[in-house]
Amino acid sequence: MAETLFALDKRNYRDCQAVFRGKRDQEYYLGDFWIEDGSSIDVRSERKGVGAISIIRQRSAAKLFFRRTRQHIREDATDLSVLWFVKRGELAFSNQCGNKVAGPGDFIITRSMSPFFMECRPGADGTHEVLHVTVPTHILRGFVCQDFSTGLFMAMERAELALAENLLTEVFSDNGSIGDTSSRLLVETAFGLIGNAIRETEEMQPVRRSIADRRLEEVLRFIEIHLSEPQLSTAMVAKGCGISPRYLSFLLRLRETSFSELVWEQRLAKAKAWLSSSDPRDISISEIAYGVGFKSPAHFSRMFKRVFGANPREYRGDAGAEEQMHLTAPEPYLDYVGSSSLLQ
């Protein structure tokens, strides 16, 4: 459940500099924060923590200002990135690279290691609202590979950004029904969507795909769907994709692989992931072998050991020990390993 980070009105708004970082100055980083005098002052900031990450919803009926200078950076070298989703009003941001004004639906990344000035302006309805996420920069770099050292601005035109905002809002609004592990997974998924949106937006021209590229995509999809079938063959794939076996071999040569190499690599990779994530009490090694298309557990064991240097039983024991170590680690995000790196 979200907690109140700070609440300010006409009586206490001049204390904003002393309270905006929350109890014991645990949120954000050093900077100058102030609120414009006015007849209506109502500022409320609520926080939901997920590991080292904070999801914060801030609403205001007055203009807010924040400044981070080089002096602040020298005094407090906290390297924190903030993801801003503007919901109402405007967010004006300026640094050495120029000025930007974000409106409802826009997205900004700021970083504490670069000086900036920010102004939060209420909209026509007299309200300013943002959902922002504070995340240690080293964590965010695992999802966003592009340079955002001086900030990043995007219009919320990509569906990935809207989906990311929805996921983060769900985690923020949860009253305790979502467990910690699921909350972390949802936050990581949101970060992955943001990274994808940024990467695809920065591509100047999408690569024009040839007919062969599209056919190869169909082949790979067919193999993925039918991977658990022991009788999977070139003839079966070619027929399912409406091409000849000869053309199938040509398409796979474009990928610099053969049919057998591709199928066995995928089967072993999925088996390895399954062994890592499953409990021996729930599913046996034989069931995993058959589940990924091997005709016998013995064949599976031989090929697994040939590729990974340990038989499935030994690997499952090692993976279980490593998982237990991760569960007892003080910071789960520091040892994050993407699940896409399955083949060694």
From TrEMBL:
<keyword id="KW-0238">DNA-binding</keyword>
<dbReference type="InterPro" id="IPR009057">
    <property type="entry name" value="Homeodomain-like_sf"/>
</dbReference>
<dbReference type="Pfam" id="PF12833">
    <property type="entry name" value="HTH_18"/>
</dbReference>
<dbReference type="InterPro" id="IPR018060">
    <property type="entry name" value="HTH_AraC"/>
</dbReference>
<protein>
    <submittedName>
        <fullName>Transcriptional regulator, AraC family</fullName>
    </submittedName>
</protein>
<feature type="domain" description="HTH araC/xylS-type">
    <location>
        <begin position="217"/>
        <end position="318"/>
    </location>
</feature>
<keyword id="KW-0805">Transcription regulation</keyword>
<keyword id="KW-0804">Transcription</keyword>
<dbReference type="InterPro" id="IPR018062">
    <property type="entry name" value="HTH_AraC-typ_CS"/>
</dbReference>
<dbReference type="InterPro" id="IPR020449">
    <property type="entry name" value="Tscrpt_reg_AraC-type_HTH"/>
</dbReference>
